[in-house]
Design brief:
CATH topology of the largest domain in chain A: DNA Polymerase III, Chain A, domain 2
Number of helices of chain A: 6
Organism (chains A, B): Mastigocoleus testarum BC008
Largest sheet of chain A: 13 strands, antiparallel
Strand content of chain A: 35-45%
Domain DNA polymerase III beta sliding clamp central (chains A, B): 143-263
Protein name (chains A, B): Beta sliding clamp
Subcellular location (chains A, B): Cytoplasm
Structural class of chain A: alpha+beta
Helix content of chain A: 10-25%
Distance between the termini of chain A: 72 Å
Oligomer: homodimer
CATH superfamily of the largest domain in chain A: DNA Polymerase III, subunit A, domain 2
Keywords (chains A, B): Cytoplasm, DNA replication, DNA-binding, DNA-directed DNA polymerase, Nucleotidyltransferase, Transferase
Number of strands of chain A: 26
């Protein structure tokens, strides 16, 4: 194996793949990134795999000699990212007795100044990335995918014992795409029209799909897509037997999917509402951030009082020990006055994710689900359960 | 107590003083900031004191009623920093039975929107900041003080059992100012000409001073001075009986000083050198940063080989387990070739702090102190002890 590439190509691709390198590998070879260099196509691919999440990226280089080898991911990434811009030569040493005096495979990295030698491992020990055969691809627009992930990922559960809730539930239909996430206390749903790029094959009606994908993998997908050159490109999606694969340009992300029945979240969203409010999102959020200083001391509970005569809502927290806080913000209100209490953290996280200047808050009573949604733009629904108000 | 001030004045001054609020107060009142409002001068001062470090700042406000009160520092700071720009009214409630239903002192904070009530404490419990009487002030230029702290603070010891080494040793003479710090492995000394601002009183020869001040207090001093409007102003320094006070504009920082004999560091710096090198600081530093990736695995030891024929020095690390790294950088060398080894962290920290493009490295043998200094500009000396080279 011998190749010449630029520092920026190697460094960028290493840092992308490194996200699938486990921090505590169960097997030594998993701490490596698999480098494959092809002299025929002048393509270099890098692969990392923690046995659940797999990432493969590739880039163009001058490949003088084909080969595949497993290189220590962290060490190679740490050095490469600190090198100046310029050309780098990577070469597998023919001899098995190295400068360092030991035996084994040695790869020499030669940037414009300096010279680094790394102990490498044979490619044969590195596990294969899962591939999906006999599955027709679904095509999603990268932009729609990014929006959907932004509006749902934050609401997944961090509690590993709640398996299926640690993922985002993805529902792909002919022209629509739905992302849902819930941790049992709140729910976020994003519905998109999936406008595939014109040059991508159209999705077949037979290709409908429902799957729950771990949040960890989707967070990496979101980062990789945000790094990609064009947000209008098509991402191909393959799904089979507990595995899902996202593929675009020269990048691929594979992940196991989560087992178990995803909650029937649609039935949690009320069909009609007795009360309806229009609010400025940023004003609401910044008042909550101040009130949160007190709510921290009070089980995070904030009281929201709807006052239709004054056309405002009042947020308040009272704590015996430290004091009290109260803020009012203007609102367009239809429906009767009511006091309702929330966990302030769920309220703030939902408001942060809603992609709109003005939002709509809809509710029935003070113990039934409350819905927040953007007025206009992306179709997103955020549901927060009220909490009991203890005076 | 009643006053009206701007959000930015209150917030800025609270965040400065809050640095002297202990995170785990030994007495409840120390978690507070003492607010003093004077209707005659329209000045408000804020004081925090952890019994070692004390900070007092003051600002102008419309004081409607004089008074002194202890307010919960973190809570007040958290709310104030989240408020929008605008006027804030702070008022001590006349009644001792508050909204919250308890008894005690309540302070109401009324920004342009909202209303916050905080439980406060009486001023009488708050300890007095140490004051220094019968000591004539020394005047230092803020700019010189900042430069001296930047060049020395990083070399102090973090080991609390080495008391006197956790501080910076300050030596003030008529026209000179010297800062020294060492942790036993390396030493940083900055010498400045203390050009006092013209309008400041001249220092008296009688006012010579040698004192060791805790790094923690000096880090806060550095931040406060960096925030101050003018770097050319004079800082008054008072010293007495284990206490030191820095005072400028409306700000004051007091600190206990460290007891114990400071090492006679001057005698560690060799008087003459057999070898003398001129190097580009950034080039040296970035090569070290890459080599450090390997040195991490090898007790942080880097070998520096001086090659006068090639006009370069070579940095190298060899590790049996992971590989090896080598970088050469050009140097102007006088003296014979030699190999010498360092703890790479000490080398990097020193190079980061040296305020110059080109630096000078001076040494005798590979087991005696090595000196790094800027060529031109600030007079700074950085001494690093070599380590034994194990091949």
């Amino acid at each position: 194996m011998k190749l010449v590439c630029t520092q920026s190509d190697l460094s960028t691709n290493l840092s992308l793949t490194s996200r699938a390198v486990p921090s505590r590998p169960t097997h030594p070879v998993l701490a490596n990134v698999l480098l494959n260099a092809d002299a025929e196509t002048n393509q270099v691919s890098l692969t990392a795999f923690d046995l659940s999440l797999g990432i493969r990226t590739s880039f163009t280089a001058e490949v003088l000699e084909s080969g595949t080898i497993a290189l220590p991911a962290k060490l190679l990434n740490d050095i490469t990212s600190r090198l100046n811009d310029g050309e780098i030569t990577l070469e597998e040493e023919a001899t098995s007795v190295d400068d360092v005096g030991g035996e084994g495979i040695i790869v020499t990295l030669t940037p414009e100044s300096g010279r680094y030698q790394l102990r490498a491992m044979g490619a044969e020990e590195f596990p294969e990335l899962p591939t999906i055969q006999d599955s027709q691809a679904l095509y999603l627009s990268a932009e729609v995918l990014i929006e959907g992930l932004r509006g749902s990922l934050f609401a997944t559960s961090a509690d590993e014992t709640k398996q299926v809730l640690t993922g985002v539930h993805l529902k792909v239909q002919k022209d629509t795409l739905e992302f849902a996430a819930t941790d049992g206390h709140r729910l976020a749903v994003v519905e998109s029209t999936n406008v595939s790029p014109e040059d991508a094959p159209k999705n077949d009606t037979a290709n409908e799909l429902e799957v729950t994908v771990p949040a960890k993998a989707l967070r990496e997908l979101e980062k990789m897509l945000a790094h990609s050159s064009s947000s209008e490109e098509a991402v191909a999606l393959y799904f089979d037997q507990g595995q899902i694969v996202f593929e675009w340009q020269h990048q691929r992300l594979t992940s196991r999917t989560l087992e178990g029945q995803y909650p029937a979240y649609r039935q949690l969203i009320p069909a009609s509402f007795e009360r309806d409010l229009a609010l400025d999102r940023k004003q609401f959020l910044s008042a909550l951030e101040r009130i949160a200083v007190f709510a921290d001391q009070k089980n995070n509970v904030v009281k929201v009082s709807i006052d239709s005569a004054a056309d405002e809502i009042t947020l308040s927290v009272e704590s015996q020990d430290i004091g009290s806080g109260r803020e009012s913000i203007p609102a367009q209100i239809s429906g009767e006055d009511i006091d309702i209490a929330f966990n302030i953290k769920y309220l703030m996280e939902g408001l942060k994710a809603l992609p709109a200047t003005e939002i709509v808050m809809q509710l029935n009573s003070n113990l039934t689900p409350v819905i927040f949604s953007p007025s206009g733009g992306l179709k997103m629904t955020y549901l927060a359960m009220p909490v009991q108000l203890r005076e």
